[in-house]
């Protein structure tokens, strides 16, 4: 009897400890949106729909941007087609990235619901909340936060990345002030109904430049990256602006959740224009990666024994010596990256070179290239630009047609299925940069691809059965950018 009582007491204490842990992690008890863990998410249902931001801003077509719903269910009669288009009510917004009002960080809160897709407009500063719950195939606009409201209460503009918080609030990085200078950079905090609460960071702790961010609550840390001053990048890319210090090369380390800037990491010339930031999904891990676009380096950041953060270059994509281009060397331009939910594979794109890469990161310090596929770029066969190898020979990449269509532009945004077996790819970066580097995208629009991923041994292959062509849209060719699943994905959801 004594042993039974002892075992029962031990079991009860274990339950109490788990309850206390959930409260310490700012999560109420219950079953809310998303999944309890990344591994549970990998066992989630196969994706059936994708929401894609589609842009007319900067194309000269005089049409509003829209949210496209794409059918990605291979058993559906409308597979690989746009099945709905939700235009926003204003022109010249430049829809860009997107996030959710609630995600797996709120999984323990039964009152939370993943309902609203948050669409910041990078150029206009407007923020849309899209109701996806009434009809997931045909979402509607729920609310609009006007730029004047945001500016008057916070001084922030050029909103970019949106992440939900366990508290129910929504955090959005902003890349500058009204005039487009980086001095207005900071983080916008909205409540659960998208009312402006103010700035998240402490006064005086705004980053020099803004872009992406990711938080890892168990380490009480948020890390943000730095694109550049909107006054510079909205006009296209000018290398002189890098020399003039109008582009970033730093990571900013904040204490979480209080918003105190505790460290600035100078990445130097190895880390010019650090863009997408990803921690490993396991919330206990203290390491992550940032892709440094101009330098062509994948940088790993990590916590040191003294509690500070450090970095190292773990992957380098050398610039290629080229002929018939504006510069004698062409960087790969790493513009997007993601990590599979099991923290086993890292994927990233080289927008200018035109390839997608898959690395095994079971040893985060030593990524191993296990898959690569070429799906566009400036150095493709038939282009006037050629690569000059060390032996003096000329080389160009061999790009396949898909469903009889020539692939345009280069791979830009990527999204991975929960099980890690399908990688979706779009090719528009930002309308001003599209016009500069890939004018064919302005003329003929984007497309979306699906890449089959070997999750056992590694390997990438284009799926010839899937091709979404934004050239044939009703209002003319459109630029496709960020992609989201209605149930969350590996770049929207954070575990606590």
Mind explaining what this structure looks like?
The protein has 496 residues and is mostly beta strands. Strands 3-2-1-32 form a 4-stranded antiparallel β-sheet, with no helix packed on it. It has a 4-stranded antiparallel β-sheet with strand order 4-5-6-7. Strands 8-9-10-11 form a 4-stranded antiparallel β-sheet, covered by helices on one side. Helix content is 12%, strand content 35%. The protein has 7 helices and 32 strands. The two termini are 39 Å apart. Residues 1-6 and 14-29 have low confidence and may be disordered.
Give me the side-by-side strand order of the main sheet: 3-2-1-32
Main sheet record: 4 strands, antiparallel
Strand content: 35-45%
Alpha plus pi helix count = 7
Decide which structural class fits the backbone: mainly beta
